[in-house]
Every structure is written in C-alpha cells, then in structure tokens.
Design goal:
Helix content: 10-25%
Mean pLDDT: 81
Strand content: over 45%
Number of helices: 11
Number of strands: 41
Distance between the termini: 133 Å
Low-confidence stretches: 13-18, 625-635, 723-748
Length: 765
C-alpha cells in the first residue's frame, strides 16, 4: 500500500458512541493472515485545528509487518517523521495461533524519538473487536528541551525525566497503574509523580500524588529575609476538565501551609501559539459548593510547559465560622470574609499583584486588609496593610464559644508590614481601651554576614497596665493553648542584635501614674539590656542601666543606677509594705544576681547599695534615749512625741547574698547612731551593732549601745550598758547639773558638723 493523505479536524463526539476505527486495527491486523506481511509507505496524517493553532503532520515513510514462515513472530518496523522530526518504532508481536493459544500473544516494542527512548512489552488479546492488552512501559528522556523541540514546541524547561507504569484493559479504556515519574529540571527542581489513570485512552480520570522539591534559584542571594518555597505536594484527581487538588501543602523556609481542597480546576482550551508555545486558556479554579463557591478564579497560562505568562483574577468569599473551624452555618453572626485576588507572572516571577478583603455582615469586628507579593516562589517583596477593630471583645469571645462574663476594653490596630531585601518592617498603632502603642520597627541584615539587626522605636502617649493585661487575657482566651508556644531558635538568638528606643509619656498603674519613661532596649550575644532608663514615679525619678545575661541558665540580672526624691511612705505602700517613717529616699545601686526568681536574686546578690533618707519624722522618742541622758531627753521633747529625722545613710556591700556595712548612720536632731555588721538573705541571719552619740555636749556622757541579732523576720534587740547602772549614774549626776541643764540645755549643737558624717574617732567599737 502506497500513497495516502488523511486529514483530521477538531475532534467531535461520535453520535453513535461507537469505538473509533483506530482501536480496532490491532485486532484486525493481528488476527488476519493476510496482514501478517504488510508494507505501507508514503502515508500522511494531518491534524488541523485553526481555532487553537494546532497544525500537526505525521508522515509515515514505512510500516512493515513481516512474518517469516518458520517464525512464530511478526516483526514490526515503523519509520516516520512528526513535524519533520524522525520517529521510529521497532519490535515484534507473537503470531496468533487460534487453534492453540487462542487470541493471546506477546509483544515487545521500542520507540526512539529525539529526546525520548521508550520500551513497552506485554500481552495482547485480540479475541474481541477492541483488543485488550496488559503490559509495562519504561521511558527515559535525557533532555526535556530536546523532547519539546521534537514535538515542535518551544519551551525553556530543560532537564531529564523517567516514566514507568503498568497498563491493562481494552485499548479504548486503558487503565494505567503504578505510575512513577521523576522530572529533574536543570535548575535543580525535582518533581515526583505517582498514581494511576482510569480510562487513559478515552476520557481520562487521574489520581496522582505529586511532590516538587524546589531549588534555591539564587543561592548567592545575600538576603536573610527572602522566604523560599522549598516544596509543593498534594494529590490531583478527577477528569481533565474538572481536576481537583487535595491535601495540598506548600513548605517554605518560614512555615508550612496546608490546603485541604482546591478545585475543580478546568481548562477550556489547549492552544498552540504562533511562536510554538503551548498555552492554556479559559482556566477556571474554584473551591467550595458549585452554586456558591468560596473561591472562583479565571485566567490563562501562555506557556504551560514553562509555567510562564500566568494571569488569574477572581474573588473569594468564606464564611468566617468555617475559616475558624466551626461547622458550616454554625456561627453566622461571625460574618463573612470576602475580597478580590489577582495573580500574574511578570518578568519571570509568579506573584500576587493584589489580595484585598474585609469581614462583612457582622457587628462583632471590623477587618480590612490589602496584600501584594510580586513573587511566590521566593517571597522577598511583600506589603501588607490591615485595620482591625473589636468594639466589644467579650461579645466576640462568646460568639467563639469562649465563656466569659468580664468586660474588655475595645481593641484596635491600624498598620502595615513590609518585606524586602532591606529587611522586615512593621509600623502601626495598637489600642486597647485608653492605651495606645505606636511602633516603627525594622529587622534587617547586620554589619556581619549572616547577622540580623532589629531596630526602631516604640512610643505611647498613655500606657495603662490594666488595658495591657486585658489585651493579654483576651489573646489567651481567644486562641488555643498551643498558640502561645513560641520559642526562638538558637541560631536566631546567636545572629540577632537589637536596639529599640522606648518613649512613654504616661504610665498608669492602678491609682498611680508614672511618666516620661525613656530607655533603649538592646540585645546582643544573649545579653538583654535596658540602658539609659529614666522614669518619673510617685514624685521620684529612677535612672540607670539594667541587664539580663542569658549566656547560661538561669541567667544573671544586673542593675546600675540611682533613685532620687522618692517619698518613703508612698514607696513602701507601692511595694505592699507599711512605713512608720516619713522621709525622702535616695539610693544608688550597682548589683547583680541570679535571674531565676526574686528569692534567687536576693540570695545571690553581689555589689553595693547605698540608701539615704533625708528629713521627716520618726514615731516615738526612744531612739534618742540611747544617746542622751534621761533629763536631756525629757527637756528636748516635743508635744507630738515624735523624733525629727535629720538623715540616714545605709551603705551596704553584698557578696553572694550577704550584706556587710561598717558605717551605717542614723541621725536625729539630738543623736547620731552609727551601725556596723551584716545580714544574710541566704540564711536570714542578722548581726548588727549600733553605737549612739549625743550631738549636744553633756557633763555626763551616757550612751546605750545596742545590737540586733536573730533573723531578718524575727530580730532580737539587745541593749548594752543599760538598765540600773545607767539610771544610778543619771540620778547621781542630776543635782550637780540641774541648773546647767535648765538654763543651758546640754550645750549647743555643733552647727558646722555635716549631717550623717562621722566625726573623727567615733566609729563603732
């Protein structure tokens, strides 16, 4: 047979649903003795589809079937060109012996095509008009680009691939099973596909698992902030015009994203462009119910093989109860999340041009946002703005089945976050009740390669701790218990340095207010510091540097600074203690200790603390009696039975939780008392000695040294040289000095003496 031309047009469905003639040929050729030796040449098969741009030509140069008399096999030789590219198939099929083996025969075929080598073998049963086959195929492509070129298709995709599968069934309804395909792309991507295809030669229904491991397209990129998509996986199932993607997962260097169901996905047309690229048009992607889909995208792909020229636009609409894991329709009061999305591939990058949305149909919260992400595979440019308002947080919690009867202040946020090669940025304003916090923070690459630096500022006009506590409580109630489990990796801690400036105009704590807080928070090499702290509180000021060294567990806390002009009674009240003394407190400190707990800090405290009190009064007058004669003590008293405090200086040196002092001074208008000794926060032991000295000159110097022993919680007072001896001495001297005491008191106080300064040779014995 020689010379024929057959032209096919766009495939039309057969009205009688009869099987195509092509599928009957294997039975006819194999069963007919006449066709055991056949030669066919110069046959041209053309496929024309002007609408979609297809114009394919298969020119058969030779098809030879040869069955030698002495052989039980028919040799097959097929030589052709597809669009000018040579194609050959060689092999053999066992001759059917109707009387012996029935209509079953073995076959083996080898296909060679530039860019593709394929081998298939199995058995064929020609007992019916449509032959049934069962076999296996193994294919190898050493160059995907060469293979595409052989089909006359332009593609920039290159690499190599293997394909293995088993097949079984009638030729017009062939079932493919055990499919294993591996594509190794030249850029380093690797794609694995496995599964099966029902009715592969009719209307295919696929069930394929896929996993794509994506290489870093720019390994030399000096950008710590690009989020790389490293893996795509999932399952594709359904007919070719209604595909769905299930169990989809996108793995990135930052997070793992799971998608339960995407689809159906349909393609209206597969077209061949004039430049020989294969494209997809009228792509439709939807998710959710057919009559009311949650996602509906429409678009096209200009280069299906190269995944180029992608453009998708559409809408999404999700009931918020489903987003939050409730049954559909269970919580209609939560509203609906709806918006628009636009994706395109420009300059070789597939990205989200715009993703905007809002929550509607609810009074529980207001939410609006807008996102752009120029590239999805490597997310190094991102802009996200959002506004959030929750007028009654308790109502929202109740709607989420979180029982609470407490009131929460309104919550709001208005801000933006960005991601670029320069780093990550966050700017915005958070409000909770009367509290507002404004942040402008940037995380970018540090001076050394691989390091990160967090810098910026946090400011507030008013910060109420009650509002912040309510915000934290709301977050803990509104999210799962595991939502708060967050821990920085060791690598991140090692490479991070930070410096955040803090500026708060007013801090509210209960009925009290603090103001003008300023500080710089710093972090580097496991050292967290709060430096240049300054804050006004209850009339006083605290300034200093504070640090937490986390190099080892449990860490070390340190403080170096000064407190000035604090009213003692108010300060003690704020600490939950009572103070009978009214005075003004100053203190300088340079200490460090364990950061495990407050008790651990005291028990390991080392350094120095010097506290001074100036002015005020002490209740009662017994303290002055320790350094004065009874008569002087009586005549220098006042009507309200108090003692005027001139000053007190309490210098303490700490080492491993034990404080020592050698020059503790308490001074009233009439008496100066000097103390020395130690107290231990580790054991609670107290061992202090005090020596009083009258500031007025007396004819008879009578003092009562005293000591404090025992423990801090249970001190014991011991008075030395007191009792009867002192009383006898004072009675004996009284007549001799009575007139002098009455008219001269006990002598003038030394006006030149500096308060709380020890005179020479007056240190404690």
């Amino acid at each position: 047979m020689r010379g024929a031309e057959i032209v096919y047009g766009e495939r039309q469905p057969r009205a009688d649903r009869s099987e195509p003639t092509l599928f009957r040929l294997p039975s006819q050729i194999t069963n007919s003795p006449v066709l055991r030796n056949l030669e066919l040449s110069d046959v041209v098969l053309r496929y024309r589809d002007a609408t979609d741009g297809w114009n394919e030509t298969l020119r058969i140069h030779a098809l030879e079937l040869t069955t030698p008399e002495a052989s039980g096999d028919t040799d097959i030789v097929f030589e052709a060109t597809l669009n000018g590219t040579p194609l050959s198939v060689k092999g053999k099929v066992q001759r059917v012996d109707i009387a012996g083996n029935g209509y079953r025969a073995r076959y083996e075929l080898v296909l060679d095509f530039p860019g593709l080598s394929s081998r298939t073998s199995g058995t064929i049963d020609t007992s019916s008009r449509i032959a049934q086959v069962e076999g296996k195929t193994a294919s190898v492509s050493e160059s995907l680009q060469e293979l595409s070129s052989s089909f006359g298709i332009v593609s920039q995709l290159d690499g190599h691939a293997t394909l293995d599968y088993a097949y079984k069934g009638p030729l017009d309804q062939l079932v493919i099973d055990g499919l294993q395909a591996l594509f190794a792309v030249s850029n380093g991507d690797q794609i694995d596909v496995s599964g099966g295809i029902e009715n592969s030669t009719g209307n295919p229904v696929v069930d394929l698992d896929f996993k794509a491991e994506l290489a870093d397209l720019d390994p030399d990129r000096d950008n710590l902030f690009a989020v790389q998509v490293t893996e795509l996986s999932g399952n594709v199932s359904g007919s070719l015009n209604e595909l769905s993607i299930d169990r989809a997962q996108i793995r990135t260097t930052a997070a793992v994203l799971n998608f339960d169901d995407i689809g159906p996905i349909s393609v209206g047309r597969i077209v061949r462009h004039p430049d020989d690229r294969v494209g997809l048009e009228n792509i439709t992607i939807q998710a959710g119910p057919e009559d009311d889909p949650h996602v509906l995208l429409n678009g096209q792909m200009e280069d299906a093989l190269g995944l180029k020229g992608i453009s998708l636009d559409g809408i999404y609409r999700f009931p918020l109860d489903q987003v939050l894991g409730f049954d559909a329709g269970a919580k209609p009061e939560l509203g609906v999340l709806e918006g628009e999305v636009s994706m395109n591939e420009a300059a070789g990058r597939l990205g989200i041009a715009d993703l905007s949305g809002e929550i509607v149909e609810t009074t529980l919260l207001d939410l609006g946002y807008d996102l752009s992400m120029p590239e999805l595979r490597t997310v190094d440019e991102l802009s996200f703005t959002t506004t959030l308002g929750i007028p009654e947080p308790a109502r929202l919690l109740n709607a989420l089945d979180v029982a609470t009867d407490r009131a929460f202040p309104a919550i709001g946020f208005d801000g933006a976050s960005t991601l670029s090669p320069k780093g990550v940025g966050l700017t915005g304003k958070l409000t909770s009740g009367e509290t507002d916090l404004e942040a402008d923070i940037r995380l970018h690459q540090g001076d050394e390669k691989g390091s990160r630096f967090l810098g910026g500022a946090v400011t507030s006009d008013r910060m109420d701790f009650a509002d912040l506590a309510s915000l934290i409580d709301f977050a803990q109630l509104g999210f799962d218990d595991d939502a708060g489990d967050f821990e920085l990796s060791e690598d991140f801690k090692k490479t991070l340095a930070a410096q955040i400036d803090l500026d708060v105009k007013e801090i509210v704590t209960g009925a009290n207010k603090a103001g003008n807080l300023s500080a710089t928070a710093q972090y580097a090499d496991h050292l967290l510091q709060l430096s240049k702290l300054s804050v006004n509180y209850i009339g006083g000021t605290v300034r200093g540097d504070f640090a937490l060294n986390m190099t080892s567990e449990p860490g070390t806390a340190s403080a170096n600074g000064r407190m000035e002009k604090f009213p003692l009674k108010r300060l003690m009240t704020e600490l939950g203690l009572s103070s009978p003394i009214s005075s003004t407190v100053y203190s300088s400190f340079k200490v460090q200790g364990s950061a495990a707990s407050g008790q651990a800090f005291l028990k390991s405290l080392s350094g120095s603390v010097t506290t001074s009190l100036w002015g005020g009064v002490l209740p009662g007058r017994l303290l002055e009696l320790s350094g004065m004669s009874a008569f002087t003590w009586m005549v220098t008293g006042n009507d309200n039975n108090t003692t005027k405090l001139v000053c007190a200086v309490l210098p303490l040196k700490f080492k491993n939780g034990t404080a020592t002092t050698s020059s503790m001074i308490v001074e009233t208008a009439n008496v100066q008392i000097v103390g020395a000794g130690s107290l231990s926060f580790r054991t609670g032991a107290l061992n202090l000695s005090f020596l009083p000295r009258a500031k007025r000159k007396q004819l008879v110097a009578i003092v009562s040294p005293f000591e404090l022993h025992g423990t801090i919680n249970s001190p014991e007072l011991v008075v030395k040289e007191g009792g009867a001896g002192r009383a006898i001495g004072e009675v004996a001297s009284l007549p001799l000095n009575l007139i002098g005491h009455i008219f001269r008191g006990s002598g003038p106080v030394d006006e030149k003496a500096k308060p709380c300064v020890l005179p020479k040779n007056s240190t404690p014995k």
